Structure formats: C-alpha cells, structure tokens
Amino acid sequence: MNEILEIIEQDPKKDPSEIALLTGYSEKEVQTRIKELEDSGIIRKYKAVIDWDRVGEEYVYAIIELKITLGDRSGYDTIAHRIASFNEVRSIRLISGDHDLSLTVRGQSMKDVAFFVAEKIATLDQVQSTVTHFVLKTYKEDGVPLFEQEKSRRLAISP
After folding, report:
1. 108 pLDDT band (50/70/90 cuts)?
2. CA gyration radius, the chain
3. Does residue 59 sit in the same domain as residue 92?
C-alpha cells in the first residue's frame, strides 16, 4: 500500500480510479485504503505547494537553530510541543550536531521574525541559545522546483 501513499504524496488530487490503474488495485480498494490511512493519522493533510514570490506576497522565512537545556521532567518532545503551538512555526525538527532543534518560521518582515525569536523563543526556560538564518531564496519546496525549466536555445536540425 506504500504505492498509494507515494502517488498521493506526489499528487494529492489524483483520482482513486487513476491510482487503481497505476497500482493494480480496484478503485474500491484504493478508496477504502485511503480512508483507513486518513482515519489512522498516517495521511495528516493534503497540501498545495505555493510559490508565494509569484503571488507577490512578501513573506520572510528563517531557519532557527536552538540549543536546549533539558529539565528533570521534560525532554525534547515537551519543548517541541510548546514551540509547535506558535503560528509562526512552519516546521520543527530534532537534529544532530551543535544544536538540538531546527525551526522553520514565517513572518511578514525580518523585524517580525526577530521579534518572534526575542519575545517568544528566547524567553523559554529550556532555550539556551538561538541562531537565526534568514532564507534569501527558495529554489525547491517539498520536492517541487520553484523555477522555470530553461528551454533549449539550440536550433532544431532537420535532414
């Protein structure tokens, strides 16, 4: 059934009848399996990848790395759940290396992101330090290139 998940991940709008043709399952089996995957929480959300630059929206994205001091009764999951509750946070990951957590955040301006870090993140007891990297340009998002493929400039040669 991983085939169904792979297809849906690539194109959530693909019709169950098309998925059935691609996998060899019946359309009814595909519909039933998709419903089970949704109900069990394996499929969390259907998502569109939007090129906000083309829309003309001026969002600022930043990747924020955090060093965490763990308390006696709290682990990474506890602080991650707390941070995940902020609307500015688009993703949060436990990482290896010099830092413990990596956040991707979105704001209307660099000032908004700086305020978020200073007022909401740095004030948390478990946060030892932060490093903020502002995203200058996104070339690929969720596996989707956000640039137009160059058309060949070579002249066609005919016999």
Report:
1. very high
2. 21
3. yes
What per-residue string of b and e applies to 139-153 under the rule 16 or more CB within 10 Å gives b? Answer: eeeeeeeeeeeeeee
Nearest in space to 63 (alpha carbons), one of 12, 1, 133: 133
Q: At what angle do helices 27-39 and 2-10 cross, to 10 degrees?
A: 80
Q: Which letter does DSSP use for residue 44 in this model?
A: -
Q: What pLDDT score does 153 carry?
A: 66
In a domain? residue 23: yes
pTM of the full structure = 0.77
- Residues sharing a CB contact under 8 Å with residue 152, sequence separation 6 or more, in sequence order: none
| Structural domain span for residue 15 | 2-39
- pLDDT, position 158: 65
Residue 145 belongs to some domain of the structure: no
Per-residue pLDDT for 150 more than 70? no
The reply to whether 45 falls in a domain is no
Q: Which two tokens stand for residue 130?
A: 């932060």
64 in the same domain as 15? no
Could you give phi then psi for residue 71, rounded to 5 degrees? -85, 175
